[in-house]
Write a structure and sequence with these properties.
2 domains; 18% strand; single chain; 16 strands; alpha/beta
Length: 374
Amino acid sequence: MTGATKVEVTATDGDARTTVVTTARGSYPTPAFMPVGTRGAVKHLTSADLEDLGSDFILCNTYHLMLRPGADVVAELGGLHGFLDWKGHILTDSGGYQVFSLEPKVDDDGAQFRSTYDGSLHRLTPELAVAVQEQLGADIQMVLDVCAPLPSSPQVLRLALERTAAWAARAKAAHRRGASRREGEHLQALFGIVQGGTDEAMRTESAQRTVEIGFDGYGVGGLSVGESREEMLPALAAAMAELPTDVPRYFMGLGDPVGLVEAVNLGIDMFDCVLPSRHARHGTLLTSEGRLNLKNARFARDPEPPDPGCLCSTCARWSRGYLRHLLQVNEPTAGHLLTVHNMAWTLDLVRRIQGAIAAGTFASLRREVLGVWE
């Protein structure tokens, strides 16, 4: 590999594609969905659960892990792979989403945060984000970026774009210095991030400037944050037109079924989202019939499995009526069983997408998903 990732395109159907991505750790197929383990675990699931579900990935959150337990602790306990006892791939975000969600003080140099745990003050710069992620030991790390809320004025989007581009160049330089210090270790991939809100011209510019710096893959950030699908897709298409095809392309924070097929249709390879586990915690099942809210009284005596067509361990053993009972009495087991199902269902949808692209029937699967979920 000349870089830290190598992409072999195995099938195409329009702009949708399947690939095998090879990293220093090994290989994984795309399209790929990454379950979100913010603090080192997907809520209600263990690493063993994710292995059983066939997941190739876990995504972890740099901001939270640098605060608790601390990147130095994670490094001492074997990096994230040893800490989680996970043999698959791990991607760490940079803390950039916290720039969006926690509204810290941001200047040209970086962002200043209050810890959500104890209120202590912390500063995150592009260089520090790289260094922390090096300590965490993920296979893929993301540059620190600025994600503007939507809607935002052109001035706010422009400032976010400029800072993201400047920070990307600084992250690339820091990453190179770190790699030279750790010669002989696994090469950690670094992904750049495209910003620009729903402004197509800014998306094009941001993608071009990020590609000029040169990364092992590219994330599209700042979308699926509340804007309409009609606003999101043209902005995504504008970015995708500028991104190279010989590296992975990653839509950050997307996981609903319609979003998945629409993004794959434009050539996206990777996704992450808390949606499967968040829905599960609130009693909502993802099924071939669409969303089912198990808290609804009509499921109290329902003997059917969550989704009769699903082969997961939850559907193999327990009824909707039983799972509803667990929810009603606040039994923690409910969160586990529903999350197992929702994660299995999402990963299976991605496998169906892979198969449809290989068979040349992706358009039919896309219509099927839109018909149920749109």
